Amino acid sequence: MADAMSHEEAIDLLALDAVGALEASDREIVARHLANCATCTHAAAEYADLASLLPAALELVPPPARLRRRLMAQVYAEASASPALPWWRRLFAAIPAGRAFTAVGAVAVVAAIALGIWAVVERSASPAPVAYTVSGTTATGTLAVGTTGTQAVLTVKGLATLPTSKVYEVWLIPPTGSPKGVAFLSPGVGGGAWTAVVPGSLAGYKTIAATVEPAGGSRTPSNIVVLSGQLGGS
Amino acid sequence: MHLSDDDIVRSISDHSPEGIEALYDRYGGLAHTVALRILSDRGAAEDVVQESFLAVWRRGSTFQPGRGSLRSWICTIVRNRAIDRLRGDRHRTRLDTPIEGESVEPAVTDPWVAVALELSGEEVRKALAELPPEQRQTIELAYYGGYTQSEIATAMEVPLGTVKGRVRIALDKLRASLADRLETPWQTQ
């Protein structure tokens, strides 16, 4: 069908479309014109961008923290279950963003810390590595701090397998102030111990704990504490 | 690490959860503001924002750079869903969901983006304030009320052509007003 619309007529309709006022009956006419008119396609983009600036005039209303948690829990749950993704992508999808290093890093850091401990034993000159005990109703474990004091590995046995919608999140808790989520426990191969790399110094923290959280993690820990342990004073 | 909008689009196209997370962190606040302005209902606004971002996640990015910015794309998705819901709810009683003392967090985590949005907000407020009231009302009825050209004509008791003219003139004035102050694509055309 011939497109008899002029640019002027089209521009009027594009402006209406940008603010959502275009009649349904005009949509097809506009689409047909845009398919053959680069000038108006560009104008449509301009008007769309202009319209998208309208909300900038509103006072920004920050969404509640629960919305982000809810959204990302759903996204991570779907990602980890998606058969369309290769196995290595599913593994990383199951690990919340920003902490994807945990699974791979755990193995490397366990090795690095072990090497560090060996070096200490051999040289008998550096500070001794520190290990803290953690425990819960069914779980027991150890937090091994590297000789540099800037990295530690949490190893835990006796934790139940979680559904894909849940994770074990590790928290460092200061004497006062809010707990800080630092890592997620990853299950060992073949039902072995769960591990997590705890990055950074433990200085200033009194307690380490792990809780059950929605996939994607939480801003604050839930009440489902599966293990805890005291830091310092060893 | 600062991700550009292009980085975010690529990440979404790769079906990466981090892409959605970055998109939400950059535009979630704007999306929530738009949905809340349209629906005036916190629970419904949250549902619409979540549905919109999940739709992007499930479909992958259908964003086309030639048809506007990432910001306008996500705004349009959220607005359309909010308007659909508004139209569907017009015959129902709305229940306002309590906030339950929930803490809030800024959705925009990148300081540079936050500053840019704040600046553009101030400029857009000024530019809108300079419009004649009937032009401003026309675009607000359309954008936030979901009214079509003919519905606006009926509500404002003016001919269809007047509505069309008001919308175009209002947007052209906004463009002229903002082009002097903001770095936007239309400046180069």
Count of runs of 4 or more consecutive helical residues of chain B: 8
Helical fraction of chain B equals 55-70%
What's the rounded overall pLDDT mean of chain B? Answer: 78
Given the structure, what is the number of helices of chain A?
Answer: 6
- Characterize the biggest β-sheet of chain B: none
SS class of chain A: alpha+beta
Computed CA radius of gyration of chain A, to the nearest angstrom: 27 Å
Overall geometry of chain A comes to elongated
In N-to-C order, the SSE pattern of chain A is HHHHHHEEEEEEEE
Neighbour order of strands in the largest sheet of chain A: 1-2-3-6
Structural description of this entry:
With 234 residues, chain A is an alpha+beta fold. In chain A, 37% of the residues lie in helices and 22% in strands. Chain A has six helices and eight strands, in the order H-H-H-H-H-H-E-E-E-E-E-E-E-E. In chain A, helix 4 (65-81) runs antiparallel to helix 5. The radius of gyration of chain A is 27 Å and the shape is elongated. Chain B has helices at residues 5-13, 17-39, 42-59, 70-89, 111-129, 133-143, 149-156, 160-179. The two termini of chain B are 32 Å apart. At the A-B interface, helix 1, helix 3 and helix 4 of A face helix 2, helix 3, helix 4, helix 5 and helix 6 of B.
